[in-house]
# Entry
Amino acid sequence: MSIDAAREYLQTQGKAVDAYLAQMFASHTRPARLFEAMNYSLLGGGKRLRPVLCLAAARALGRDEVEVLPVAAAIELVHCYSLIHDDLPAMDNDDLRRGKPTNHRVFGEALAILAGDALLTYAFEQLSRPLAIPADRQLRAIHVLAHAAGCYGMVAGQAEDILQTGGTGDAATLEFIHLHKTAKLLAASVEMGAIVAGADARQVEALREYGIHLGLAFQIMDDLLDVIGTTEELGKSAGADQQLDKLTYPKLFGVEATEKLAHDAVLRAKQALQAGGIASDVLFGMADFVIRRRS
# Structure
């Protein structure tokens, strides 16, 4: 039943995140085209996995989701900026994202870059404004997100991904890319939810460990779906990794071994929850969800 609970929670809380994000830039002045570009990607669909994981972690520790929505929204802003920049011609040069033309295809490269910059910057404006959270917890949450998003996290992973494109690479390098590019932000999502909820050190560590393994499983599946999925299913160009000659798990290990690695990572994520005494059907179900998804 855990995966059913996770899917239902993802749907209901995803809608709550959507509603919160929809009002974020609803009233603005100039330049209208910039805000249009920001909202185009921010409100363009998606699973809302990262903010919902933040909400689920807080809920597992007794905090009401409504109180955590501003924190969860900041995480989604960072994720959204990264997708805009990831699709740029200088990066992956992709034409589709979430089944729609990518931001730079609609608004041009300059506005796409600026829209991404604006979303990233506003994430920290959002997270640092007065919230109904003790100041020490709020400061810790800001630090966790900044660390996961920057040169020790997502940016490092993206840089290494670019540097390894077209090369031979090895398993250690591939794990570094996946850990930094994807897993650290997913881990930050649950860690921030735990911090806001007032978790103790053992619970925070357990949720961080869960998030790392969940994030690795998620990215391993992304590699796999690029090989076995279709453009229609994925909402983005299938086969793009192979076309760009990126370092991926199927490239190094093949499809069957990649599937096993994803399942192994999910098992470790569940074990982390158990070790930390975190009893949450939703969080356990999320682990299964990431390896059964088709997009």
Observations:
- The mean pLDDT is 93.
